[in-house]
């Protein structure tokens, strides 16, 4: 197992640490762990490409680690005792999108026998703003951030979440033709 995959597995082990810190109302430490996880995501990708360590295991584990961290962030911050949390509707939209895309991808694969996955600019924007929403909410529990700013980030993330769902739906329908 190469260094890139070891770093990805380390990121997976950070998820329960992050959840525990949220559960114990420690947003500063949770933010530090979240940022470390984000840096390891960038690092494992760099190492995999730079040192030719791209593996099938890495291609599977990396997105699982990313989604597990984000979904855990939304669910556990929402259900925490933190003062600033995610609204319920936001958590539902974010998780529903992921389930919808996963089910749609499986359906296309079973019908066509293959799946042509192309990340879209809207998908990348969705990920960026969802990560920013986690960071913003955690920061708002550490220091003063105006409520309008927190809501603005969450609404922007929601907009791109819905938009990317629509674009992936269109792309999926095109693959079925």
SSE blueprint:
Elements lengths: L2 H21 L3 H24 L5 H23 L9 H25 L8 H20 L6 H30 L1
Helix pairs in contact: 1-2, 1-3, 2-5, 3-4, 4-6, 5-6
Task: Please supply descriptive tags for the structure shown above.
177 residues, mainly alpha, 2 domains, 81% helix, globular
Distance between the ends = 40 Å
H/E series:
HHHHHH
Structural class: mainly alpha
- Unreliable stretches (pLDDT < 50, length at least 5) are none
Oligomer: single chain
Helical percentage: over 70%
**Measured on Cα atoms, how large is the radius of gyration?**
17 Å
The overall strand count is 0
User: How large is the share of residues in beta strands?
Assistant: under 5%
User: What is the average of the pLDDT values?
Assistant: 95
Overview of the structural elements:
The protein is mainly α and 177 residues long. It has 2 domains: 1-82; 83-177. 81% of the residues lie in helices and 0% in strands. The chain contains 6 helices and no strands. It has helices at residues 3-23, 27-50, 56-78, 88-112, 121-140, 147-176. Helix 1 runs parallel beside helix 3 (56-78). The longest helix has 30 residues, at 147-176. It is globular.
Write a brief caption for the model.
With 177 residues, the protein is mainly alpha-helical.
């Amino acid at each position: 197992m190469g260094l890139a995959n070891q770093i990805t597995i380390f990121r997976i082990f950070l998820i329960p640490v992050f959840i525990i810190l949220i559960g114990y109302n420690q947003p500063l430490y949770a933010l530090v762990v979240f940022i470390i996880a984000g840096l390891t995501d960038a690092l494992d990708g760099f190492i995999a490409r730079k040192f030719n360590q791209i593996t099938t295991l890495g291609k599977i584990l990396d997105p699982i680690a990313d989604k597990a961290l984000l979904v855990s962030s939304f669910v556990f911050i929402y259900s925490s005792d933190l003062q600033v949390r995610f609204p319920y509707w936001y958590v539902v939209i974010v998780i529903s999108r992921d389930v919808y895309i996963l089910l749609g991808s499986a359906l296309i694969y079973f019908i066509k026998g293959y799946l042509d996955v192309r990340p879209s600019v809207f998908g990348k924007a969705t990920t960026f703003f969802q990560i920013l929403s986690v960071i913003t909410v955690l920061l708002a529990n550490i220091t003063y951030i105006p409520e309008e700013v927190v809501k603005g980030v969450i609404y922007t993330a929601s907009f791109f979440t819905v938009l990317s769902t629509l674009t992936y739906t269109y792309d999926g329908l095109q693959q079925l033709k």
